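Final report, closing paragraph on structural work. Over the funding period we assembled a curated collection of sequence-structure pairs, and we close with a single example.
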Amino acid sequence: MSRSPLLLLALLAPPVLAGSPPKKAAPDPKEVHGSAIVVDGHADTPQFLLDLGVDLTAPGPYHVDVPKARAGNLGAEFFSIFVEPKYNQGRHTRRALDLIDAVRSQVDRHPGDLALALTAEDIVAARAGKQKKLAVLMGVEGGHALEGDLGTLRNFYRLGVRYMTLTWSNTNDLGDSSGDLDDPAVKHHGGLTPFGQEVVREMNRLGMLVDLSHVSDATFADALKVAKAPVIASHSSARALTDHRRNMTDEMLKAVAQNGGVVMVNFYPAFIDDGYRKAATALRAEEGKALDAADAKYKDDPAAHTREWFRIEQEYGARVPRPPLASLIDHIDHIAKVAGVDHVGLGSDFDGIPTTPQGIDSAADLPKITEALVARGYSREDLHKILGGNLLRVMRACEQVSRQLSK
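Its predicted structure, as stored:
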């Protein structure tokens, strides 16, 4: 008895198991990235704006500017208000105010390209319509910029600062840093100080994100006990993959997830690749001497000092081969698996690091991260969370806590 061709195809087709959903096609990386609100948690570009007169709308040798942001669909950037503690002794707050002014001046000069964002909805509004402005936010990197004054914290918030990193690489009067734990000349507190606790509470009341990048493990734990709102790590990676104190252990990642916060992965090769970390560590003493000499030589010339620091960092960064992009993707993937996909984001450290992974030369290359994550099986929904949605959620939660505490 002859059978029809259609019947033969049906008989030869593999059986479909009851209850098994059809396999979804991989999302289009270009569509996913283009439709996302991409948020970067940390860029040190303001030093160039202030000291070198760089214009954000002009293409230059730096990682972040408006043309590169447009090319990479970067939607929002947290510009770091970083005050180098040794070079700026006695004028930490003054330097921070000057950097804030430099950032806000760029927004004033270029209203068609830049929009100051004070809330999560401001970021969304900046990306609406055809113009798609770059949403400009600010984060103070290091509580030493307060010079022990809570009033300064409130003034930073009024000027637009929306997060503060409790410490930089230096222990301060808020708590211990991860950067000087081995220095016997530094007096450590054993974690967060009483003043640091007061600062965290006031940040929660204001609606300012508490940033736990750079802090010691003890300071991290103490801050989570005090915080009433979700925290962030604006530019930190996973210690399980790269054994650096600046990175977070799996236990810390889980603690941030339990708090409802987000860890934004740093792009610096020494934080994402153990081979690079070991090679860079071998050069650290030599590079440190060069940087100290620059501090002394240009102590009264901030512009020359910034140019020399940039040159030295570029020189020493280039001495070690750049790790592959996969090293960065491994950290995003690891944090997504350990903390959950709702608790990972991007915190490049652009313009504050001497080099980057292969393929990521500036903000223009951010779509390559999305492409690599698509190849690892991430969905459109999860990618939108990683690229910026998680940070927007945390901002909204902090704004809600602020409203509750203010009552």
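The longest helix spans residues 380-406. DSSP finds 16 helices and nine strands in the chain. We thank the funder for supporting this effort.
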